[in-house]
Design goal:
heterodimer; A: 264 residues; mainly alpha; 11 helices; 0% strand; B: 266 residues; 70% helix
C-alpha cells in the first residue's frame, strides 16, 4: 500500500506542474458550455418548456455536466495504448506493483489537482446560476452525487482500460478511444438530457452503462431521483463496474500472452 | 502568381503522398471512417432529439437546420482535414521538442509547412454524409434550391474557410509562448465549432462579436442562408475583406511569434 501512496504523491506533484495546461483544458470545456447556453437561449425564446425542462433547469443541467465530468472523465486510453505499442510497459511489468492499481492511483491524484484548480470556477458558476435562477445544489444531493461520481470513476476507468488493452492486438486504438467519446457524448447525457428522448429509445439508453458517466450523477445532484431510484441505479452501477473490471482483467491476461516487447 | 503556382504544385504532390500513406494502413483507415460515421450519427441524433421537443429554433425549422448541419459537416471536415489533424494539432509538440527547427531551415514558407503539410483523407466520408444530409433537408422540407445561388455561396463559403483557417492558426501560434500548449489546437477547434449554430441564435452585442471580431457568421450560417435563398448583398464584400484581413493577421502573427522562438532541441 505504501508504494501506491508514493505513486499518488509523485503524480500529485507532477500534475501541479501542468496547471496552465489544465486551465486551458477548462477553457476548452467552457467554450462548449457557452455554445450550449446560446442554443438553449434561442430555443427557449420560442418555447417555454422542452421535454419537461424549463430554461432554468436546462441551464442547471449543463452547468453540472462539466462538474461531473471532472470526476468521471478518464483518459487512460489516450496514453496507455502507446506505451503498449512502443514496448514501454515492459519496464513496468517487471516491477513489483500492480500496473492497474498504479494507473488508477495516478489518475485519482491528477483528478484531485484538476478539482483544486477548477473548484473556484465551479463555485462561481453555481453561484451565478443560484443568483440569476434561484437554483442551488443542496448539501445532501451534493454528497450523494459525488459519492456516485466516485463509483462512476471506476466504471469509466475499467471501461477505458479494456479499450487500452486492445492495443495488444491492434496497431492503433485511437479510433476506439474516439468511438468511446462519441458514444459517451450521445448515450452518456453529455450532449442532451437523456429523458428528452422518446420513451422507447430511452428504454434502450437506460439499459446501457453509458448513462452513468453524466446523466445519472447529474440527475442525483439535481435531486430528480428518489432514494429508491438512487439505490437501484447504484446496484446497476456496481454490476457494470464488476463486468468491466472482469473484462479488463481478462483482456490484460490474454494480451500479455500475445505481447512481444520490441522496445529496449 | 508564379509563387502560388509553385505552392499549388507542391500541395498536389503532398496530397498524393498523404493518400498513399493513409491507404497503406487499411485497418486504421477503416476504423477512422467508422469514427467519422459515428460523428455523423451523433449529429443527426442530437438534432432529432431537439426537434422531437420543439418546432423551430431561432426561426429555423428542422429541414433548414438539416441543411445547416450538413454544410457544417463539410466545413468542419475541410478545416480539420486540411489544417488540423496532421498539422496544427502537432504544432505545440513540434515547438516543445525543437522539431520546428527542421521546418524553418527549409526553403518554403514556414506557415504553409506547419499548417498545410499533410492533409487527412478519412474525413471524406463525413463530407459525403454532409452532402446527403443537405440533400435530404432540401427534399424533405420542400425547400427551393436555386442553382444561381451556388456562385455567391462558393465565395462566402470560401471566405469562411479562410477565416476559420486563420483563426485556428492564430490560436495555435500562441503555443510559441506556452510551455504546455497541447490543448490549444482543441481550443481553436472549439471556437470554430461554435460556427455550426445559426447566427440568429446570438442576440445583442454578441451579434457584433460573431460578425466582426470572430466572424463565425461567414463560416456556415451565412453560406447556408445563401443556399436557402436569403442572400444579403453586403455579405460578399464583407466576407472577402474578412478573409484577406484574417489571413494577413495570421501571417503577421506567425512571423512575430517566430521571433520569440528559441529552439528546444539539443
Amino acid at each position: 500500500m505504501k508504494k501506491y501512496w508514493v505513486f499518488f504523491k509523485s503524480e500529485l506533484q507532477r500534475s501541479f506542474e501542468y496547471r496552465g495546461m489544465l486551465a486551458t483544458w477548462f477553457l476548452v470545456e467552457l467554450m462548449g458550455l457557452v455554445t450550449v447556453i446560446f442554443v438553449w437561449l434561442a430555443v427557449y425564446r420560442d418555447n417555454l418548456n422542452v421535454g419537461g425542462y424549463d430554461f432554468k433547469q436546462m441551464i442547471f443541467y449543463y452547468v453540472l455536466v462539466p462538474i461531473v465530468g471532472v470526476f468521471t472523465n478518464v483518459y487512460i486510453s489516450e496514453s496507455l495504448p502507446k506505451k503498449i505499442k512502443d514496448g514501454v510497459i515492459s519496464a513496468e511489468l517487471i516491477k513489483p506493483y500492480n500496473l492497474k492499481v498504479k494507473i488508477l492511483v495516478g489518475n485519482i491524484a491528477w483528478r484531485m489537482v484538476k478539482l483544486f484548480i477548477y473548484m473556484p470556477i465551479f463555485v462561481a458558476m453555481l453561484a451565478v446560476v443560484g443568483y440569476f435562477f434561484g437554483i442551488s445544489l443542496s448539501f445532501g444531493n451534493a454528497m450523494i452525487g459525488f459519492l456516485v461520481c466516485f463509483l462512476v470513476y471506476f466504471l469509466h476507468a475499467f471501461m477505458d482500460l479494456s479499450i487500452s488493452y486492445m492495443a495488444f492486438w491492434m496497431d492503433d486504438v485511437w479510433a476506439l478511444s474516439h468511438l468511446k467519446f462519441i458514444v459517451l457524448f450521445m448515450f452518456g447525457g453529455m450532449s442532451f438530457p437523456l429523458d428528452l428522448l422518446p420513451e422507447n429509445l430511452w428504454k434502450i439508453f437506460n439499459f446501457l452503462p453509458f448513462k452513468f458517466i453524466y446523466f445519472v450523477p447529474v440527475s442525483v445532484l439535481r435531486g430528480r431521483l428518489s432514494s429508491f431510484e438512487i439505490g437501484f441505479q447504484v446496484v446497476q452501477l456496481l454490476a457494470w463496474i464488476g463486468f468491466f473490471h472482469f473484462l479488463s482483467e481478462i483482456l490484460f491476461k490474454l494480451g500479455l500472452k500475445k505481447y512481444e516487447a520490441y522496445g529496449n | 502568381m508564379k509563387k502560388i503556382k509553385r505552392y499549388l504544385k507542391i500541395y498536389w504532390k503532398l496530397i498524393k503522398f498523404s493518400a498513399t500513406l493513409e491507404t497503406t494502413y487499411r485497418m486504421s483507415f477503416l476504423l477512422e471512417i467508422i469514427v467519422e460515421v459515428g460523428y455523423f450519427v451523433v449529429t443527426v441524433m442530437g438534432m432529432k432529439v431537439l426537434f422531437w421537443n420543439i418546432k423551430t429554433m431561432a426561426g429555423w425549422n428542422l429541414y433548414e437546420i438539416m441543411v445547416l448541419y450538413g454544410l457544417n459537416m463539410i466545413f468542419a471536415e475541410i478545416v480539420l482535414g486540411v489544417a488540423f489533424i496532421f498539422n496544427l494539432r502537432g504544432l505545440p509538440e513540434k515547438i516543445a521538442n525543437g522539431e520546428l527547427d527542421l521546418i524553418l531551415i527549409k526553403p518554403l514558407n514556414s506557415q504553409f509547412m506547419v499548417s498545410l503539410w499533410r492533409p487527412y483523407f478519412a474525413l471524406i466520408p463525413s463530407m459525403l454524409a454532409g452532402v446527403i444530409m443537405m440533400v435530404f433537408g432540401f427534399k424533405l422540407g420542400n425547400l427551393v434550391f436555386n442553382w444561381l445561388s451556388l456562385f455567391p455561396f462558393m465565395i462566402i463559403f470560401g471566405c469562411g474557410l479562410v477565416v476559420a483557417y486563420s483563426v485556428g492558426m492564430m490560436v495555435v501560434t500562441l503555443s510559441m509562448w506556452l510551455v504546455q500548449a497541447t490543448p490549444l489546437p482543441m481550443l481553436a477547434q472549439k471556437f470554430l465549432f461554435m460556427a455550426k449554430e445559426p447566427f440568429s441564435i446570438y442576440g445583442g452585442a454578441w451579434r457584433f462579436v460573431f460578425l466582426v471580431i470572430l466572424p463565425l457568421a461567414f463560416m456556415v450560417s451565412f453560406p447556408t442562408q445563401v443556399l436557402l435563398g436569403e442572400l444579403v448583398w453586403w455579405w460578399i464584400p464583407m466576407g472577402l475583406v474578412m478573409a484577406v484581413v484574417f489571413l494577413k493577421m495570421s501571417n503577421v502573427f506567425w512571423n512575430f511569434a517566430l521571433k520569440s522562438y528559441s529552439s528546444a532541441s539539443s
